Structures are given as structure tokens and as C-alpha cells.
TrEMBL record, chain A:
Cofactors named for this entry: a divalent metal cation
Residues that bind Zn(2+) 1: 60, 170, 221
Protein's name in the database: Putative aminopeptidase YsdC
EC number: 3.4.11.-
Lineage of origin: Bacteria, Bacillati, Bacillota, Clostridia, Eubacteriales
Superkingdom assignment: Bacteria
GO biological process annotation, one example: proteolysis
Protein family per UniProt: Belongs to the peptidase M42 family.
Gene3D superfamilies hit by this protein: Peptidase M42, domain 2, Zn peptidases
Native species: Ruminiclostridium hungatei
Keywords assigned by UniProt, alphabetized: Aminopeptidase, Hydrolase, Metal-binding, Protease
TrEMBL record, chain B:
Cofactor requirements of the protein: a divalent metal cation
InterPro entries the record matches: Peptidase_M42, Peptidase_M42_aminopept, Peptidase_M42_dom2
Keywords carried by this UniProt record: Aminopeptidase, Hydrolase, Metal-binding, Protease
Xref: PANTHER family: AMINOPEPTIDASE (PTHR32481), AMINOPEPTIDASE YPDE-RELATED (PTHR32481:SF0)
Record organism: Ruminiclostridium hungatei (Clostridium hungatei)
Pfam families registered for this protein in UniProt: Peptidase_M42
SUPFAM superfamilies per record: Aminopeptidase/glucanase lid domain, Zn-dependent exopeptidases
GO molecular function: aminopeptidase activity; metal ion binding
Name recorded for this polypeptide: Putative aminopeptidase YsdC
TrEMBL record, chain C:
Gene: ysdC_1
GO MF term list: aminopeptidase activity; metal ion binding
Binding-site residues, Zn(2+) 1: 65, 175, 230
Cofactor(s) required for function per UniProt: a divalent metal cation
Catalytic residues in the record: 207 (proton acceptor)
GO annotation (BP), single: proteolysis
Binding site for Zn(2+) 2: 175, 208, 314
Matching InterPro entries: Peptidase_M42, Peptidase_M42_aminopept, Peptidase_M42_dom2
Protein name stated in the entry: Putative aminopeptidase YsdC
Length: 344, 329, 349
């Protein structure tokens, strides 16, 4: 399964190589040409039937993770977070360190040795460390030099009612949708952009969008889903199993209202389950793309992911399917729709 | 059952002072059993002879209470707890000593904040002018139970000491209506449960049973803002999975579940996160005793107004009866 | 199988206290090639005996507990989330973003997610999560989940076994499967040895809760001496030297009122004679192990405690150095070779 293959790869922001190579191997033959730009985005081009419209699809290849920032005398590794990670989830988790894919664990002080006040306290990442089984500083430096990237160690697993648990669903789901979309042909020029460094500030998309200067852009994402106990309903944002999520507004982007409505109608007309994201938190590449050049009509279609930015992100297979179907259906609709020839 | 319950809940029997309650229970059961004995810890052990499995049924007859530790010049009594006594539920309550003397519990007036409410800030007033007068009625070391009248409303019954006299009532009821069985049944009314499962330890050693079931009360999950528990008043017996003192043996637990299901007895499963019960001590006796629990859902545990459901009690009798009749090991 | 293969196999067994039956039977399977007799008793202790050759053979009991920290399901809500009660001491802080397996009618994977930081209620922000607030996401809705899972079902941490750098490995339940692997290694070392004393190996149950397994087994078997093998805290940055030992430098041998001084001294002697590294740990009272119960079981049993250093105890990433299992096994097998007379002398104070 494509998502399994994609989430098994490690691609912490700034180190997207593994993911990039895999995606290139998948899209060669599906597009007319592709290039890797200076920062590392893949821009795949598919010419289409001669229409003038330029449509950009965007999904980011990178994932949150860590980077080696120091070594202790006894061979433990100090590390920093790459992207937004909740410190609370770190103690006692497994990680994969560096190109050699060394097994490591984030240490946790045994409960037996914690004072009462300590039990109430949350560990800060600056006080945490990773154990890779090195016995000395020298050994640790040799095995995991400064700047090595570290990813969560977590398998892709299907469970429950058509659910999937994996790391990096944000945004390998988007990458998978883009690869699928490239299997289809449209009237317009299609640019499928697999971007880098989204998690550290939407940086790859900025460069990609400038290169492409599209008329319309669809950002395919994994987005937050908080429909869990202890959270009030109005804070759910999205609901697992309720279909593709359309963003109205978030911290980085007020999506093009016409385009969002257009997508919603396409979904309804094609019997695809769709929901609006009902909070304004979070943000993604859409924010950068929308503000490129003369401005780009931009919208986001997302797969709801519980426990995003953790090793155990959870999504529904049905939601993924809805996003994939909606993306492709919308592109076909744009192909047919005269309103889209040459822009709005 | 209701009369028995009223009788046994109202008798005095703070842990370590179980003489009165033992006497009352003894009189209720003596003519129905083959043999009775009282061991060195004061446990009342009644036996129905049999040739097959030795089954120990335990209900503790002691109750929580207080012990007078100091009497001041003005005749006020300072006290300490016996068992799990909360200062919050104690405040404003009446306590009754074995000799019938009743006192009221008040807090030092300068106490401003409930957070500072400790037993040490409370005192008992028995309405005496001075120490001399007070000491004629209550001596340091005397114990008292909380006053809590017995009443029945609808299908629920409320009293002090439902923990665990309701369990005692279940055993008494069972003794009077014993099923035919070849198993040898030991009905044990244990002592000092509330101060650390102490009576059950020696009783179990004396018997060395093949298995044991405790009949005790348990917390419910059906009151406002309480912990998440499946157990509820009127939901039938709670079959023990674990409490803080032991893990019910899976074979016993499953057998009880089967018996309940087959015989139309409603039940819930009990996973108690605080508090323990007698099997914590019984289980590790000798070469080990597989244990389980048939628990009575009880609201307001360790308060003077503990509430149980009479229907639940009937079901507890039925389930216990089925167990001793059918258990084969 | 080698130590590391055994350890990997053992680590994946599930033995929540009170529910060790399946794991005990598998463990008995590993023991049976090395013993005269193996059985699983009513509390799911695995009891395995090797007869000694001596006419006045003494009984030496060697125990390592088989159970692991875990949970029981205490609630199931309509959305398919399960609540947990712990069995054994678990730091709820390590549970966020942790996977668990619910052992219902079928095994069900559960995910413990973290509520997004910005959605935490003001009173919970900055505070450690409490077990009572943790909900396990099963990917089912409540009705479906209840087909597979009931309140009272056991739950274990899910964690695969990883080999690490240089003889190290990490995974779940290395407390105390490292010691069970050690028992197997002792048996292997003694395979061709004619020892005078009867040896009783026990993989004991319910250590993490109430030490039930070893108390009842000791009462039944009445050994003359006992060696408890358990794990201890490996040195990590947060722990001072007084409470931790260094992985790779051999077993931690405890000294204190819980342990029999002559047995302890004998281990020191055996270590020196045979060039086996060991570390010393002073315990002023309760060692927090089965040794505490063993010492006062039945008529009283002289007891020694050897511990294998484990880092991050009671998490899903417990880490061990395989060398320590070897060192511990050598140490205990040397002890097991003592003659009945030698052992007898040690037992008087």
C-alpha cells in the first residue's frame, strides 16, 4: 500500500532525501517532466490537453522529528525538535537515529525513583536524552554525529474499523494523493509539487509556488482531528470518518471562498463525504502559495488525523479515499468547466 | 433479610472491639451450622461439614470508628481514627461509645479553610464540665462508632456500617438457607479488616481452604462527578476483578460470571482503584488460595449513611449460594 | 536459541499480573528441555526442578518473576475509547503516544493519543496527565468495540524488541524477562554439571502487585535457600549512584537486612574467584523485590538478590546489556555447583 511505503520512510524537515527518491521512482512515467529545485522540492509537470490554466497540487514530503544537538560524557544524545512536537509525548518512545537507522530510545526516569512532585511534572525536551547504547561520548559521536536527523520509530498498522496508525501521516497522505492524481490526464497544465520543510515554516512551498506561478492551487494535507474524549465538541476541528476536510480559514490562510464552495459542490455532486474544518487553528503550505506572485486561488483538502505530530497518528481509510476522490473529481470538473479556462 | 440487616448494622463493633457484633451474629447462626469457633484474632468461624472442597466465605464484622486519645481539662475528647475515617465526613457527626455515651464532633473554631481540616483539628464533645466528669464516661482508649440510623426507602437501605455488616447479613441469610452441597463451607466473620485485613489472615491459615470468596461492599460509579466504574446501585452483585489488595483469580472470576449469566443474575465487574478487601490476606496464605469477591454496590462508603440495595443483597445471596453448591475446583 | 533470541521471544509474551497463564505455559515450554520436571501451578508460577546427586541434597530455589506491568479495561465509552486501571506501578506520563494491546476476545490495537496542547483545559495545562484521564483509541465505535472487548480485559504495552548497539537491546517487559532469559542461561550452563543440591527454578507470578506467586511457591516448596533474580535501575542522567548500577558491569548484588550476609559474601567470593564482574548495592530495608517476601516465607528462607541493570524501568523501552545476563548466569551457576555441605555451612548465621 502506497501510504505504508511512504510512512515507513524517514524524512524529517531538511532531510527529505529518502522520501524524494521514493516519490521520483513512483512518478517517473506518470508525468511529462519533473525537476528537483534548489531547496529540494519535486515539481512534476503534466502538460494536459492544451488548456491555459495552471493548476498546482501541493503536498509536503517532510515530517516532524528531531536532530542531534550534543553528546553527554556517558554516551547519551541530546536533541532538539524539528517542527512542533508536544514535549509530553516524548519520554519512553522509540526513535531511529541517522542514516544508519540506529535504534534509540528516549529515556524516562523510572516511576520508582520519582518524588511525588516529580510525578506531576512534565519533562522538557532540553532535559531529555536519547540512548543508542553507546558507552562513551566518543562512541556516541561516531555513531550519531551532530546534526544527524532522528525520526519516530513507528510501524504502519491497520486497526479498528478501517483505521490506520502510523507516523508522518501528515503529510504522506498528501504525497499519496498527488501520485494518484498524476495517473489521470486533464485539460490544463498540472504541476504536482512535493514540497520540503513545511513543518519548519512552509519554506519549500514558497519556492515551489514562485517557480510555478499557478492560477489555482490545491493543498492536500493531513490535518488536526480532536474528536476525542475530554475535548469539547466545538474544538473537534474535524471528525474521523466524516470525510474530506475543507479548510475555511486557519492561522496561515483564508482559503479562496469560491474555490472552497466549488470543491464542496463537487463533493456533494459526486457523493463524496465532505466536512468543513471547524476551527481556525493550524496552518499549512496554502498560506505561502496563496500569497505568491499576483496571488493564487488556493484551497486545502485534508485527511483528518488524530494525534498528529506524534508517532501514533491515526486516520480513517475512508477519509483518505474521500480526499483522493475529491481531488481527482475536482480536477476533472475544472477540466470540463469553462469558467476555469484562463482563470475565473 | 431486612430485619437481619437492621439488627447487624446497628450493633457496636469498631475494629478490634468486635465482641458485641460477634455475639449477635453467633446467636443468629448457631442452630444452623455444624460447628462454630472463635480464633485468637476474634474471628467467628462457622462450619457446614462436607467431603469435597473447602470453601471459605468471608465477611468482615468490624466497622470503622474512632478511638479517644486525649481528654482535655474542659472535658473535650481528642481522637484518632480506626480505619479510613475522613475528617470531612466526620465533622458535625455523632459518635457513640460502646457504653452508649454519645458525643458530637466539632472543629476548632479558628480553622478557616477546609483544606486545613485534619482529624487533629476536630474534637468530641460529650457535654461534660471538665476532665474529671468526662473520664467517668469515656476513658482514653475507648472506641466509638459513628451514629447512623437504619432506614429503608424503596428498595434501598441506609445505615452506618453497611461496610460490611451487609456482607454479614448476606452470609447469615445464606446460612439459614443453605443449598445442598458436598463442599465444606466455612462462614467466616472476620475482624480488623478496616485496619489491614488482619483477622482474615489467621482465619485462612486455620482453615487452609481450597478457595475463598469475600462478601464486602464496593464503591459505585453512579453518583455525581465520581470515578468511572461500571458498578452501580441496583445493578446486581459486582464480581471482583481487582482491588488494591489483590487480583481475583481468573478462574474464580470467570466462574462467578458464568453462574450469574446462566441464572439470570444481573452483575457488573468491579475494578476498585482504592481500598482492599480480605482476600488480599487470604490469597497468600499457605500454598496460596485462589480468591474472588462478590461485592455489594454501596454509596457513601465509610460515611454514617452508607446505602445499599436490598435487591442487590438478595442477588448476592443467590450468587454465593450457586457458587458453594456448584464449585468443583 | 541464544540469549538474545530467548529474550526477544520472552519480551513479546504478555503476562499482566494475575493473568500469566498463557505466558507461563510458553515459558514452561522453554524450560522443559533442561529440567527433570516442569509444571505450572494454580497461580501460574512455572516450577521447574533439577534433582541433585547428593544424598543430603539441600533445596536451592532460584526465582525470577514472569509478570509485567499492565492494565485492565475499566470502561468503554460510546465512541469506542477504553479507560484503564493500572496493575503494577506505571508512570502515566510515558503513556501519551504509546500503543497498547487490549486482550479481549481478540487482540485489539489501542492508541493512547495526547489531547492537542492548545485544547487542554486551563487547569490541565502544564500538568502531567493522569491515568484516569487517559482514553485508549481503538478505531472502533463503542458498540463494535464491545463485541471484542469487555471491562476487566487485560491490556499490555505494545513495543517491538530492538537490538541496539553492541550487545544492547530494548523493548517491553525486560523487567523481568531479562531474568527469565538468565534462568535459561543458568540451565544451559548446568546442563552437563552434576550438582549435589536440588535446584528449583521458578518463573513467578504477581510480583508487580503483591508478591503472591513467590510467597505461595516458597511455602509449598520449602527451599533451604533462595536466590532472587530481578532487574534494577541502570545508570541514567537523572539517577544518583546510590540507586543505580552501570549496565555491562555485571549483576548488582544487594547488601542489607533483607539479604542473608553469608550468601551475599559467597557471591562476592565467587565473583572474584571466577573473574565475574559485579556491583554492590546497599538496601536499607525493603529491596522492592521478591526477596522481601521470600526471606520471611514459611519458616524463613535465607535469600540473596542479584539484579540485572535495566534502564527506563517500567516503560515500553526498557534497555538491557546482554553481557549482564551472561555475568549473572555464570555467577548463579557457580553458586549452584556448591556442595550440600558448603551450602549448609552458609545457611547458619
Amino acid at each position: 500500500m502506497l501510504i505504508k511505503e511512504l510512512t515507513d520512510l524517514n524524512g524529517v524537515s531538511g532531510n527529505e532525501n529518502e522520501v524524494r527518491e521514493f516519490i521520483i521512482s513512483k512518478i517517473e512515467g506518470l508525468c511529462d517532466s519533473y525537476k528537483v529545485d534548489s531547496i529540494g522540492n519535486i515539481i512534476a509537470f503534466k502538460k494536459g490537453g492544451g488548456g491555459k490554466l495552471k493548476v498546482m497540487l501541493s503536498a509536503h514530503m517532510d515530517e516532524v522529528g528531531f536532530i542531534v544537538s550534543g553528546h553527554s560524557e556517558k554516551g547519551f544524545i541530546r536533541f532538539k525538535a524539528v517542527g512542533g512536537i508536544d514535549d509530553r509525548i516524548l519520554p519512553g518512545k522509540k526513535v531511529i537515529v541517522g542514516k544508519k537507522r540506529l535504534s534509540g530510545v528516549i529515556g524516562a526516569k523510572p516511576i520508582h525513583q520519582q518524588e511525588r512532585e516529580e510525578r506531576e511534572k512534565i519533562a522538557k525536551i532540553r532535559n531529555l536524552y536519547i540512548d543508542i547504547g553507546a558507552d562513551s561520548k566518543e562512541e556516541a559521536e561516531k555513531l550519531a554525529p551532530l546534526g544527524e536527523f532522528i525520526a519516530f520509530d513507528s510501524d504502519f498498522v491497520k486497526f479498528g474499523n478501517d483505521c490506520i496508525k502510523a507516523k508522518a501521516l501528515d503529510d504522506r497522505v498528501g504525497c499519496a494523493v498527488l501520485i494518484e492524481a498524476l495517473k489521470h490526464s486533464f485539460d490544463f497544465e498540472l504541476y504536482a509539487c512535493f514540497t520540503v520543510q513545511e513543518e519548519v515554516g512552509l519554506r519549500g512551498a514558497q519556492v515551489a509556488a514562485y517557480n510555478v506561478m499557478p492560477d489555482v492551487a490545491l493543498v492536500i494535507e493531513g490535518t488536526t482531528c480532536a474528536d476525542v474524549p475530554e475535548v469539547d465538541k466545538h474544538e473537534y476541528s474535524t471528525v474521523l470518518g466524516n470525510g474530506a476536510a475543507l479548510t475555511i480559514m486557519d492561522r496561515t490562510c483564508y482559503c479562496d471562498r469560491e474555490l472552497v464552495q466549488y470543491l464542496y459542490d463537487v463533493a456533494v455532486n459526486n457523493g463524496i463525504k465532505v466536512q468543513y474544518k471547524q476551527t481556525t487553528t493550524g496552518g499549512n503550505d496554502a498560506g505561502q502559495i496563496q500569497r505568491t506572485g499576483n496571488g493564487v486561488k488556493t484551497a486545502s483538502i485534508s485527511v483528518p488525523c488524530r494525534y498528529i505530530h506524534s508517532p501514533v497518528s491515526v486516520m480513517s481509510g475512508r477519509d483518505y479515499e474521500a480526499v483522493e476522490r475529491l481531488t481527482v473529481a475536482a480536477l476533472y470538473q475544472m477540466s470540463r468547466d469553462r469558467a476555469f479556462k484562463g482563470g475565473w | 433479610m431486612q430485619d437481619t440487616l437492621k439488627l447487624v448494622t446497628q450493633v457496636f463493633g469498631v475494629s478490634g472491639n468486635e465482641e458485641d457484633i460477634r455475639e449477635v451474629i453467633f446467636n443468629e447462626i448457631k442452630k444452623y451450622v455444624d460447628e462454630t469457633r472463635v480464633d485468637a484474632m476474634g474471628n467467628l468461624i462457622a462450619v457446614k461439614k462436607g467431603r469435597k472442597k473447602k470453601i471459605m466465605l468471608a465477611a468482615h464484622m468490624d466497622e470503622i470508628g474512632i478511638i479517644a486519645t486525649f481528654i482535655d481539662e474542659d472535658g473535650f475528647i481528642r481522637f484518632s481514627n480506626i480505619g479510613g475515617v475522613s475528617p470531612f465526613t466526620s465533622l458535625g457527626q455523632r459518635v457513640r461509645f460502646r457504653n452508649g455515651i454519645t458525643g458530637t464532633i466539632s472543629a476548632e473554631e479558628k480553622l478557616e479553610d477546609f483544606k486545613g481540616l485534619k482529624l487533629g483539628k476536630l474534637f468530641i464533645d460529650i457535654g461534660c464540665k471538665n476532665r474529671e466528669e468526662a473520664e467517668k464516661l469515656v476513658k482514653v482508649g475507648d472506641t466509638a462508632n459513628f451514629v447512623g440510623e437504619f432506614y429503608v426507602q424503596g428498595s434501598s437501605a441506609v445505615s452506618k456500617a453497611m461496610d460490611d455488616r451487609s456482607g454479614c447479613a448476606v452470609l447469615i441469610e445464606l446460612i439459614r438457607n443453605m443449598p445442598k452441597t458436598e463442599n465444606e463451607i466455612y462462614f467466616v466473620f472476620t475482624t480488623q479488616e478496616e485496619v489491614g485485613l488482619r483477622g482474615a489472615k489467621t482465619a485462612a491459615f486455620g482453615i487452609m481452604p481450597d478457595c475463598a470468596i469475600a462478601i464486602d461492599v464496593t464503591l459505585t460509579g453512579d453518583t455525581p462527578e465520581c470515578g468511572k466504574r461500571e458498578v452501580k446501585l441496583g445493578g446486581g452483585p459486582a464480581i471482583k476483578v481487582k482491588d488494591n489488595a489483590y487480583i481475583a483469580h481468573p478462574a474464580i472470576r470467570r466462574y462467578l460470571e458464568e453462574l450469574a449469566a446462566e441464572n439470570g443474575i444481573p452483575y457488573t465487574l468491579e475494578l476498585l482503584d482504592r481500598g482492599g478487601s480480605d482476600p488480599g490476606a487470604i490469597q497468600t496464605t499457605g500454598i496460596g488460595v485462589p480468591c474472588g469477591g462478590i461485592s455489594i454496590p454501596c454509596r457513601g462508603v465509610h460515611s454514617p449513611a452508607e446505602m445499599v440495595s436490598l435487591e442487590d443483597l438478595e442477588y448476592c445471596v443467590k450468587l454465593t449460594s450457586l457458587f458453594i453448591k456448584n464449585y468443583k475446583g | 536459541m541464544g540469549i538474545i533470541q530467548n529474550l526477544e521471544y520472552l519480551s513479546q509474551l504478555v503476562a499482566v499480573p494475575g493473568y500469566e497463564k498463557a505466558a507461563a505455559e510458553k515459558c514452561a515450554g522453554l524450560f522443559k528441555d533442561w529440567c527433570d520436571q516442569v509444571r505450572v501451578d494454580k497461580f501460574f508460577n512455572v516450577v521447574c526442578t533439577r534433582k541433585g546427586t547428593g544424598k543430603a541434597a539441600k533445596k536451592l530455589m532460584i526465582t525470577a518473576h514472569i509478570d509485567e506491568i499492565g492494565f485492565l479495561v475499566n470502561s468503554i465509552d460510546e465512541k469506542g475509547f477504553a479507560g484503564l486501571t493500572n496493575v503494577g506501578g506505571i508512570d502515566s506520563k510515558i503513556l501519551l503516544a504509546q500503543e497498547v494491546i487490549i486482550h479481549g476476545k481478540q487482540d485489539v490495537l489501542g492508541i493512547i493519543g495526547a489531547t492537542p496542547p492548545h485544547l487542554l483545559k486551563a487547569e490541565d495545562a502544564g500538568k502531567a496527565v493522569k491515568l484516569r484521564d487517559i482514553r485508549v483509541d481503538t478505531g472502533y465505535d463503542g458498540q463494535e468495540l464491545k463485541k471484542y472487548v469487555s471491562v476487566g480485559d487485560t491490556v499490555s504495552l505494545k513495543s517491538k524488541f530492538n537490538k541496539m548497539n553492541e550487545q544492547k537491546a530494548s523493548g517491553k517487559s525486560l523487567d523481568n524477562r531479562a531474568s527469565i532469559a538468565c534462568l535459561l542461561e543458568i540451565l544451559r550452563l548446568l546442563a552437563a554439571v552434576n550438582h549435589e543440591n536440588d535446584l528449583i527454578f521458578i518463573a513467578s507470578a504477581q510480583e508487580e502487585t503483591h508478591l503472591t506467586g513467590v510467597m505461595t511457591a516458597a511455602y509449598e516448596l520449602r527451599p533451604d535457600a533462595a536466590i532472587v533474580i530481578d532487574t534494577c535501575h541502570g545508570d541514567i542522567p537523572e539517577l544518583p549512584k546510590e540507586v543505580s548500577s552501570t549496565p555491562g558491569k555485571g549483576p548488582e548484588i544487594s547488601i542489607g537486612p533483607n539479604l542473608h550476609p553469608k550468601l551475599v559474601a559467597k557471591f562476592f567470593e565467587l565473583g572474584k574467584e571466577n573473574g565475574i564482574p559485579y556491583q554492590k548495592m546497599v538496601e536499607a530495608g525493603d529491596t522492592g523485590t521478591e526477596a522481601w517476601a521470600t526471606q520471611v516465607s514459611a519458616n524463613g528462607i535465607p535469600t540473596a538478590l542479584l539484579s540485572i541493570p535495566i534502564r527506563y524501568m517500567h516503560t515500553a523501552v526498557e534497555t538491557v546489556n546482554i553481557e549482564d545476563i551472561k555475568h549473572t548466569a555464570r555467577m548463579v551457576s557457580e553458586f549452584a555447583k556448591l556442595s550440600s555441605e558448603q551450602l549448609g555451612e552458609l545457611l547458619c548465621l
